Amino acid sequence: MHESSALTHIRKLTNSSVNCSQLDVELLMMHVLKLKKNELYRDNPQINDQNKKDILSLIKRREDGEPLAYVINEKGFRNLELYVDRNVLVPRPETEIMVQTILDNFDSKPHNVIDLGTGSGAIGLSLSKERNNWDITCSDISIEALKVAKKNMISNSLKVNLVNGNWLESFQRDYFDIIVSNPPYLCPNDPSVHSDGLKHEPIIALVSESEGLKDIEKIINKSSKLLTRKGCLFIEHGNNQSKQVCSLFKKYGFSEIATIEDLNGDNRFCSGRL
Ligand code: GLN
Question: Is 5 helix (H, G, I), strand (E, B) or coil?
């Protein structure tokens, strides 16, 4: 058996890999050895042939363009550690801003909230983490995605209602105080759908007809019937869709319509009050 230390091996792999950064290799090594970063650097353990084989196969997946989050089945979102796999979109930092905006606008009075198309549960679970008296529902059309959200609910010791449904179809009138969604919004012919990263993600979480606006419009329309008086809707959208999404909010009777930028300074969310 050929042994070498983890840190020496990380250096070797980083130098020989075409498009894996040292950080990627470190994270893959931590995953294989089940160590935290401080443990890796403090102990610099010996690794064996099996460890080397495992890490090489993970590097290969990463080099094929698979998101690191899928390779290590993990993604941090705000203050949650989320399990992720190919059944759910990898939660994005943009979406963290939408959660922050909701928290900034609503104090800890009880509210009924739904996260539509929850995927990994990122939005609903992080709201639940920071507002533990809100009644939060996470819904998704995909049973496989709901399994992931459930896993994350349990591992983060949170309690939300998990519902299998197509947007708001199975709900009654005047029910929610806050509706939030990061729906699919890319055009079906957007070439980025086939790029590294996105090509590994579930297409139903990415793409929507009518120039990417079909699901957004459905959500806005239904939300106008299901929000309580003065209830609020928050929707993530593409960086070139802000005008159209604002018009749809207007069309379905929303007021106080606001556009919020992401960290790149791109218009990324729309919010409105009924
Ligand atoms: N924000 C994703 C992207 O980077 C798209 C996710 C979505 O459609 N909600 O393209």
Answer: strand
Q: Which residues line ligand 1 (CB under 6 A)?
A: 89, 92, 182, 184-186, 206, 236
Residue nearest to atom 9 of ligand 1 (CA): 184
CATH number for the domain that contains residue 32: 1.10.8
Q: How many domains does the chain have?
A: 2
Closest residue to atom 5 of ligand 1, CA basis:
206
The per-residue pLDDT for range 102-117, each reduced to its tens digit, is 999 998 889 999 999 9
What's the mean pLDDT when you consider all of the chain?
Answer: 94
Residue with the two structure tokens 């993600």 = 201
Give this prediction's pTM. 0.93
Indicate if 121 and 233 belong to the same structural domain.
yes
